[in-house]
Design a protein that fits this description.
This protein is an alpha/beta fold and about 450 residues long. The chain is built from 22 helices and seven strands.
Length: about 450
Amino acid sequence: MLARHEVRFPSTGAIRSVSLDVSTPDGLAPLIEELKARHEWIEEEQEIYRNVPIPLAILAHKVGCDVIDAAEGLASQELSLKVAHGAQDERSAAVRSIGTNRRAGCVFDLLSFWTCWRLGALDAVTETCGAIHVARRTMDQLQARRERISRSTASGFKSAQYKDGKIAVTEASPEVVQSWLDDTDGAIAWLRANENICPLIVPESIPEALRDNLRESPVAIFDSLVLAMQKRLLFISDDLPTRDFGRVFGFGRSAWLQPVFMAACEKRKIDFDTYVKWTAHLIGAGHSYLGISSAALIRASTIDAEAGECPGYYSKEISKMIGGTVADPASHVRVVIEFLRHIWERPSTRSYREPVTGLLLERLVRDRTSDFGLILRTVITYVSDITALMDYFRAWLRGHFVDLARTLRTHYATFCLQVIQILAKAGTGTFYHMQIWTISVYILI
C-alpha cells in the first residue's frame, strides 16, 4: 500500500521512500543523506527562531511537532527558549500584572500548562492566580499528543537522526512510552476535572489582522492570548514573542512562570526550597533571563550539600543565570559577593565552598572578554577581608592564567584613549588635557 504513496500523493511529504542496499559498505548512504538534509534544515529553522521574534509554536509547526517537543529539543541542544528580555522593568510589570489580577483567573498556553503539570505546580498557581483556563485547541493539542504516543505503547518508540556523520538511533521501551502516555492522560484528566476548557469567541476589539490569523491558521499560535484578552484574565506564557504580540495589540496583563512562582512563594503557597527547585528545573528546560538572587544561590548549594554533592544539580542550574554577554555586571557582581560572603564566613560550608566558588566565578566572567578583569577586581575588593577566600582567589587566578593587574592596566589604558578621542573632537582649548591623558596611557602600557 505504501509502495505507491509518493506517486499517489506527490504533494505530501509525510512519508518518503529511500532505497537502501545493506550488502554494500555505502548502502546506507542515501538514508544518511536524507537524515543529514533534515538535520541541516531543522538547524536553519532553529536559527531563524533564535534571531527572529517568532513564537515557538511556529517553529514547532514547521518542523512537524508540538511546542512541548520543540522546547525539549532546543533544551537538549543547550539552546535557550525566548522567555524574557531580562530587564528589571519587564519583571516589575509581570509582578504588577499578577498582583492587579487579584486571583481573578489566568490563561495558560500549552507549554506553560505542561511545565506546571510536570512540576506539580498547578495547585500552587491556582491559589496564586485563580482558576486556570485553556483554549479548546490547547486541549486538542494534548489529545493529538496522546494519540501520537499511544501508537508506540506496544512496540516502543524508535527514531533516527544525523549526528557527526553517522546515523544516531534513539529508542524507548514500551514501558517508557507507557509512562509518557500516563503522564499525558493525567494532564488531560486534570483539565477535564477543572472544567475550564474554553471555546474561543473573538471579540470585536481584536485587530482585523489577528482575527484573520485565528480564522485561517492551522496552528493555535494566538488562541491562548486571545482567550486571555476575551476574558480579561492574566495570560501566563513562557513564550516571549507571543506576550510581545499581546502588548502590540494593547494587552499587557501577562507574565511567565518564574514571576508566578515568586509570587506563590511570597504568598506562602510554596516554601522557598520548592521555589528554588522549580526555578532550577525551568533553567534546565532552557528558560532564559530568569532573575536569580543570592538567597536562591545559597539555598541551592545547601540543598546539593545535604544531598551529598555540591555543586550538584541545583547549584549548577541556578548559577547558569549568572554572567554572560548580556548580563548586568553590577547586579550579578552584587549577587556573587553576597553569596561568597555567606559561604566563606560559616564553618558549616567548609566542605564545599571552594568547588562552588570556582563554578560561580567561571559563570560570572564567561563571555566577558572586555571587562572580566574589572568584574573580578570588584568582587575581590568587597571580600578582601576574608583571608581564606583571598588565598583561594590567588590560586584560582593562577589556575586560570589571569594576570589581574595587567588586565586592569589595559582596561584603564583603553579608557584613557577613549577620553583622548572625545577631547580631540571637542576642538581648541583641550590640548593640555590631551597631553595629560596621553602620558597616562604611556605609563600604563
